[in-house]
């Protein structure tokens, strides 16, 4: 039987407590309300639970969600579902226990960054430097490992929340990414088994202050990802979590980000150097993955560093990933 597509979301109306919801398109209804209408679809599995709680026994919850979606009629959608603009859309998992981010993971992005910064062997012209960078990325994909760091959960914001910017000299930058939400715990997960641990996918944006990456007080420390990527609001997440069963091949996902209508990033996830299964394999070698954990899988070419143009108050940052929805983030000055 063909499953009817849906996503899960977390939302609230006014000042009420956020609630887990079933999202169809850009409309959402509380799971509690829907199981009162259709109790046989799995009241004990869905009622009174947050999305994070549902993820603790995802296979069990997913069956109930499938059953619920199968009986939701167009009349119920019209009568009980709210347009996204009528409610406050919260991060779909509110909040993950752990956030892992994979850096320098899109081939064209790293090649462009190499050329933009002029990093490489001396004496090479632009053509030679590009060829050197491309060969280096091919070698890294064949023999290397992902580069992973963590990000505080306090960075998470909703898909439509305003982003409060630091001073422009910190060079706040965008990084649209495919977010992977874990639905089954594990340690030392094999590459072949990795995708069975994925509950679903969501849009994330790993906002970064480029001017804070390098440590100048003690250069041997190198980079400082905590201060560069750890500020409040630096990880817009959502608007929804799309179950993995509706994404047949995550490499086919297409990412597009625009600033004030100008497209800056426009790339397929197939350009990843290390695919999602390799990232899960690597991360679980050193950390225990838990249901609800979020993996940010890297950002494609077209960051502000490439354009020498960074986020400014008044900007509208719109991020879209095929099948996962759309973010719209207004940028405002820090008071």
Describe the protein's topology.
Blueprint: E1 7-12, E2 19-24, E3 27-30, H1 31-37, H2 43-46, H3 51-55, H4 58-71, H5 74-80, E4 82-83, E5 88-90, E6 99-103, H6 107-117, H7 126-143, E7 147-150, E8 156-157, E9 163-165, E10 172-173, E11 176-182, E12 198-205, E13 208-209, H8 225-229, E14 235-236, E15 242-243, E16 254-259, E17 262-268, H9 276-286, E18 294-296, H10 304-307, E19 316-321, E20 325-333
Keywords: Metal-binding
Domain Fumarylacetoacetase-like C-terminal: 98-326
InterPro entries: FAH, Fumarylacetoacetase-like_C, Fumarylacetoacetase_C_sf
Give a quick summary of the entry.
With 335 residues, the chain is an alpha+beta fold. Helices cover 26% and strands 27% of the residues. The protein has two domains: 7-90, no CATH class; 99-105 and 146-333, Alpha-Beta Complex (Fumarylacetoacetate hydrolase, domain 2).
Describe the structure.
The protein is globular, with a radius of gyration of 20 Å. It has 10 helices and 20 strands. It is 26% helix and 27% strand. The mean pLDDT is 95. Helix 6 crosses helix 7 (126-143). The chain has 335 residues and is an alpha+beta fold.
């Amino acid at each position: 039987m063909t499953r009817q597509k849906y996503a899960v979301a977390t939302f609230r109306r006014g000042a009420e407590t956020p609630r887990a919801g079933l999202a169809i398109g850009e409309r959402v209804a509380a799971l509690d309300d829907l199981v009162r209408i259709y109790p046989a679809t799995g009241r004990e599995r869905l009622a009174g639970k947050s999305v994070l709680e549902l993820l603790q026994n995802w296979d069990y919850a997913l069956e109930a969600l499938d059953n619920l979606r199968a009986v939701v009629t167009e009349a119920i959608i019209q009568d009980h579902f709210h347009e996204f603009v009528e409610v406050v859309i919260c991060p779909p998992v509110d909040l993950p226990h752990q956030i892992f981010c994979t850096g320098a993971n899109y081939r064209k992005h790293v090649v462009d960054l190499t050329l933009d910064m002029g990093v490489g062997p001396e004496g090479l012209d632009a053509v030679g430097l590009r060829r050197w960078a491309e060969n280096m990325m091919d070698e890294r994909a064949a023999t290397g490992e992902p580069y992973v760091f963590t990000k505080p959960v306090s960075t998470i914001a909703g898909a439509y929340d305003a982003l409060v910017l630091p001073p422009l000299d910190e060079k706040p930058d965008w990084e649209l990414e495919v977010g992977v939400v874990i639905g089954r715990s594990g340690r030392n997960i094999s590459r072949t088994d990795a995708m069975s641990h994925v509950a679903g996918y969501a849009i994330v944006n790993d906002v970064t202050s480029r001017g804070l990456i390098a440590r100048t007080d003690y250069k041997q420390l190198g980079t400082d990802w905590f201060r560069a990527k750890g500020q409040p609001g630096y990880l817009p997440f959502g608007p929804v979590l799309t179950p993995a069963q509706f994404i047949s091949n995550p490499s086919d996902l297409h990412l597009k980000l625009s600033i004030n209508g100008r497209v800056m990033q426009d790339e397929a996830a197939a350009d990843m150097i290390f695919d999602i299964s390799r990232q899960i394999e690597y991360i679980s070698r050193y950390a225990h993955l838990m249901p609800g954990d979020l993996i940010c899988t890297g950002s494609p070419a077209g960051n502000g560093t490439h354009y020498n143009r960074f986020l400014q108050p008044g900007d509208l940052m719109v991020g879209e990933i095929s099948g996962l929805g759309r973010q719209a983030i207004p940028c405002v000055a820090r008071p």
